Amino acid sequence: MSGSSHAPMAHDVRDPFAAPGALTPQNAGPVVRLLEIEKYFGSNYVLRGCTMEVYPSETICLIGRSGSGKSTLLRCANFLEEPTGGAVEIDGVRVDADPLHARSGTHREQIRQIRLRAQMVFQEFNLFPHMKVIDNLIEAPIRVKGVPRDQAVATAEKYLDKVGLSDKRDEYPARLSGGQKQRVAIARALTMEPKVLLFDEPTSALDPELVGEVLIVMADLAHEGATMIVVTHEMQFAREAADRVYYIDEGAFLEVGPPEQVIDSPQDPRTAKFLARLLNK
Q: CA 193 → CA 93, 140, 212, distances in Å?
């Protein structure tokens, strides 16, 4: 944890727990670096110097109790929340926290570049209700990236097929189940062809019988080599898909390692207590 939220950032900060996953290309460097991320909400110290490195084709699962800071960290990763201190680097684009000048033109452009590289999948889907599924998918590629419409449609159809929803192309979101809406949201994120996918508890708003269809899509993405950071309470998914699991408590990482260590043999008693409650051990 740095001594001051406005202290200069060191450029040699490393995640001491990072180790490239099995699918990571040899000699690849990290595609995501979160460097000593701090966040205050007023006097509430929510994130306490979190550092994480994610390599290409890795899946990282971030777990912890409600209010521990995991969703805030994810939102800081693409500047939906402006960090109070630290820096984010994605695919070579670095943005230092600058809360006092967050609306400057240079800072806004840096954030835009970060968001092109890191797409978020939210709890509540956030689909445009007045647009058909296909139009939800092509909106951002056309408006944000300037992709020609026919190319955007072809890409959108490819990813709708990938999530098993080609037959819902011309439906409106109101006619979809919760699981289908979330799969459309995943396809929408994929159409931007980002370097990393950020999932903020993507199954928490779903009825239990719909959770599995979303997790299957996410597990397939993980096994195919997508780079993902996933905030989740789904421990079976974390066991099967994660390269590393981070347990966060009161805004700091308490335990980090492969899922067989963190989930099945936690070393920190606070991690063990959390998992015992979650898994009803």
A: 16, 11, 24
